[in-house]
């Protein structure tokens, strides 16, 4: 089975621009979660999608948004980029959503490294 | 507020010895706890999941304990090898509710040959 695929691997943007990151989950996984990882804050939860619906959302401003398509692929968008948005953005898929009674582990992609200048 | 604490400093262990990593949590009542390994430039990889009613879980050279009274999980790697060098993350979770899986900042483990 192919793993979680994230594109692009690296991205350099300028302050004020917007960016869209893409994630293809493992085949059969319907839950996709997004995380931001920085050296200072570690892994921080952005949001989770299951069956095209946002199930959970972390404590991030509205500039961060996402969506999920019918084939479970997901995209996240960051508008009006700030220098502090520079981070590794990780996508993870699982068979069930976080609020399910059966908690399957997360399978992460290798992330998109976003640099904002 | 909920807090997860892992050794912030790198842990240096000699090859062949047992490495023990600690995960402490406060203001949590996790139903289960997960451990992940992360290598530089890559996403975390799931290692083990332990539930609140399990005191110990093993997988090959890995062992995890879960003490809900102490609010602590210990992660052991026996017969450690240089290839075990990585950052290890713990993630306790309540098992329900609207919160996403929250991770500790991880412990950087270095196995010296």
List the helices and strands and how they pair.
The complex is a heterodimer of chains A (117) and B (113).
Chain A: E1 5-7, E2 10-13, E3 19-24, E4 31-38, E5 42-50, E6 53-57, E7 64-68, E8 74-78, E9 87-94, E10 107-108, E11 112-116
Parallel strand pairs in A: 2-11
Antiparallel strand pairs in A: 1-3, 3-8, 4-5, 4-9, 5-6, 7-8, 9-10, 9-11
Chain B: E1 3-6, E2 11-14, E3 19-26, E4 32-38, E5 45-51, E6 56-59, E7 62-67, E8 72-77, E9 86-93, E10 107-112
Parallel strand pairs in B: 2-10
Antiparallel strand pairs in B: 1-3, 3-8, 4-5, 4-9, 6-7, 7-8, 9-10
What can you see in these coordinates?
The complex is a heterodimer of chains A (117) and B (113). Chain A is mainly β and 117 residues long. Chain A is built from no helices and 11 strands. By secondary structure, chain B is mainly beta. Chain B has a single domain, classed as Immunoglobulins (Immunoglobulin-like), CATH 2.60.40.10. In chain B, the strands form 2 sheets. A 5-stranded antiparallel beta sheet of chain B has the order 1-3-8-7-6, with no helix packed on it. In chain B, strands 2-10-9-4-5 form a 5-stranded mixed beta sheet, with no helix packed on it. At the A-B interface, strand 5 and strand 10 of A face strand 4 and strand 5 of B.
């Amino acid at each position: 089975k192919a793993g979680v695929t994230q594109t692009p691997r690296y991205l350099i943007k300028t302050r004020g621009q917007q960016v869209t990151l893409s994630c293809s989950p493992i085949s059969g996984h319907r839950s996709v979660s997004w995380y931001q990882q920085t050296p200072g804050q570690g892994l921080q939860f952005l949001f989770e999608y299951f069956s095209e619906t946002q199930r959970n959302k972390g404590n991030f401003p509205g500039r961060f948004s996402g969506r999920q398509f019918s084939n479970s692929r997901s995209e996240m968008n960051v508008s009006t980029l700030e220098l502090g948005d520079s981070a590794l953005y990780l996508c993870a898929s699982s068979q069930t959503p976080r609020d399910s009674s059966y908690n399957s582990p997360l399978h992460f992609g290798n992330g998109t490294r976003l640099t904002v200048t | 507020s909920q807090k997860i604490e892992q050794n912030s400093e790198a842990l240096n262990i000699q090859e062949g010895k047992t490495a023990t990593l600690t995960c402490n949590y406060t203001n949590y009542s996790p139903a289960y706890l997960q451990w992940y390994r992360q290598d530089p430039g890559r996403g975390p990889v799931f290692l083990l999941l332990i539930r609140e009613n399990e005191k110990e879980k093993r997988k090959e050279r890995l062992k995890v304990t879960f003490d809900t009274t102490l609010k602590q999980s210990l992660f052991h790697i026996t017969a450690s090898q240089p290839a075990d060098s990585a950052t290890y993350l713990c993630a306790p979770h309540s098992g329900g509710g609207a919160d996403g899986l929250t991770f500790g900042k991880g412990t950087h483990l270095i196995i010296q040959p």
